[in-house]
Write a structure and sequence with these properties.
383 residues, mainly beta, 7-stranded mixed β-sheet, 6-stranded mixed β-sheet, 28 strands, 13% helix, disordered C terminus
Length: 383
């Protein structure tokens, strides 16, 4: 009886260690609309037409992909319908370090579009997506990137902008719209009083010969810097207001993050920086600056209780943290607190990953079955 049990367990183990085969997708012909590229607004779930030749840094782009298996274009709403039958590979001859997430398939919820393309019938639809890196570069850089779409079977088809391609498992459809592109940040021209938007952080001072007032952020943040900018060179001035690592490190503190990103943010002359806060509940809040990865109390800062704002005399816009309680910086090196010049993105990572297939759980089950099978065989031999 135990011999039979051992044999049964061995058979179960054999089946358990077999590779799970997935049914092929019904999508066997796609059209990549590579003539159009979009950016996505998370707030209104809208796609906005962009320029493939002139890419913005620190931006995610989307190329529409539709199902043409039936001869009529249809939305692709499941990622597996693409990833089961098609794969994306990338060749970058120039500018590879300025692509933080390489091209990959993705499904996005789209409520509206501004441009030539719109979802055919559903709010969910497929794209090829990639992201440009946040490197704080002052000058534009060249990009020579070819996106290759391979079918997993020679009978599957791929078109580009409605034109069928001679594709196969070893011959991809080649998207070449990004082989002669540039990546850069947008510019803001200084004036006597102006707002520096986060999307245009390079500030030029060509026609300035006097004091200026610069404003950063929205109505809730409104950091203001007043300085004489005569003969000032161009600077990278972007206000960032999030640091998840620092907020996780101090969960019991209420924090306001005011980081000026990049390296190139030092003025020729000293000015007055005003940082308002909403953390004044009767007690004066604390102002810190992140210096070399460590929180340092800004002892030179003056707090104006009537305006509920800190005032600092400085010529360099740093990384500031306002807290409602005193912070003890026990291990600053553990977190990525210094938003000054660190690029934390992975330049070789894909934008998406395939759905979890449960393979790890299956391997665990196979190992358990192997142990039971070996035990059964040992008992049988003993008998």
């Amino acid at each position: 009886m135990k011999k039979i049990l051992a044999c049964v367990l061995a058979v179960v183990l054999a089946f358990g260690m077999c590779t799970v085969a997935f049914a092929a997708s019904d999508v066997t012909a796609i059209d990549v609309l590579s003539g159009t590229v979009y950016t996505y607004d998370d707030d209104d779930k809208a796609m906005y037409l962009a320029d493939a030749a002139d890419l913005d840094a620190n931006t995610t782009y989307y190329i529409p992909v539709v199902d043409v298996t039936s001869g009529t274009a249809a939305d692709i709403t499941k990622l597996s319908d693409l990833t089961n039958n098609y794969k994306v590979r990338t060749s970058i001859d120039d500018g590879s370090s300025y692509i933080s997430s390489k091209p990959a398939f993705v499904i996005k919820n789209v409520s509206s579009t501004v441009g030539d393309y719109h979802p055919i019938s559903a709010s969910k639809t497929a794209f090829i997506t990639f992201t440009t890196a946040d490197k704080f570069n002052m000058e534009e850089v060249d990009l020579d990137m070819t996106i290759n779409v391979y079918p997993s079977d020679n009978s599957y088809d791929a078109a580009l902008n409605g034109v069928d391609q001679a594709v196969g498992v070893n011959s991809p459809a080649e998207i070449e719209e990004f082989t002669n592109s540039t990546i850069c940040y947008r510019e803001t021209e200084a004036s006597s009083y102006f707002l520096v938007p986060s999307g245009a952080p390079i500030v030029t001072f060509d026609d300035i010969d006097d004091e200026i007032e610069m404003e950063f952020g929205d109505d809730d943040e409104e950091v203001v810097f007043i300085v004489n900018a005569t003969n000032q060179k161009d600077l990278f001035l972007r206000l960032d207001t999030e640091d998840e690592a620092l907020e996780d490190k101090y969960p019991n503190a209420e924090l306001e993050i005011r980081y000026f990103a990049g390296n190139n943010k030092t003025f020729r002359k000293t000015g007055e920086l005003t940082i308002p806060t909403d953390l004044d509940d009767g007690d004066e809040p604390y102002l810190y600056e992140v210096v070399d990865g460590k929180l340092t109390l800004c002892e030179d800062a003056k707090y104006d209780s009537s305006d509920e704002a800190f005032v600092i005399k400085t010529n360099k816009l740093g990384n500031y943290v306002i807290s409602d309680t005193k912070l003890v910086d026990e291990d600053a090196d553990d977190s990525d607190e210094d938003g000054d010049s660190t690029d934390s993105t992975d330049s070789s990572g894909d934008a998406t990953t395939n759905p979890d297939t449960g393979a790890n759980d299956f391997v665990g089950l196979a190992v358990a079955l192997a142990v039971v099978s070996v035990a059964g065989i040992a008992v049988a031999k003993k008998r």
